[in-house]
What does this fold into?
Amino acid sequence: MSEQDDKIFMKRFSLVIAGLAVVAVLIIFFAIEMNEQLAGSDNPMQDVAKVDRIEPVFGVYAGDTGRAAAQAAAEEAAGSQQQQVAFDGSTDGEMIYNNVCQACHMAGAAGAPQLVADQWTDRLPQGEDTLVQHAIDGIGAMPAKGGRSDLTDEQVRASVEYMLAQIEE
It folds into this structure.
């Protein structure tokens, strides 16, 4: 190879490197332009959702200070759970039945009596208070409060009263 061939190679190599640098700069400007066009949304719920996603799942506490902080957090969590009542505390028996009880009592799942008089002949003599207590505490395959621990006793009573009224019709 001669010196002339080396000069030609270096010239072509330099042109290729310069061309690649120009392409890289063009890609950078294109990316900046695209980023400006994809401006973030002004939706405040996105910020709330982001905070929820990055919120710690649980805290780690150590020593006496940590024990006190853990106990305070547990009490706060228990207080917030007690405040949550299903259906905003509504005692509309029909609405509670349709949203909770109907799932099993409509189809007779796991032996749940349907709203047919002959399926209640053994239950009705027990009295309304006993039926309400069974609904609150659970009986047989039925979980307590139909599996909705956020129902109040008054809401359960309202749904049982609604069911009994439907049977009598």
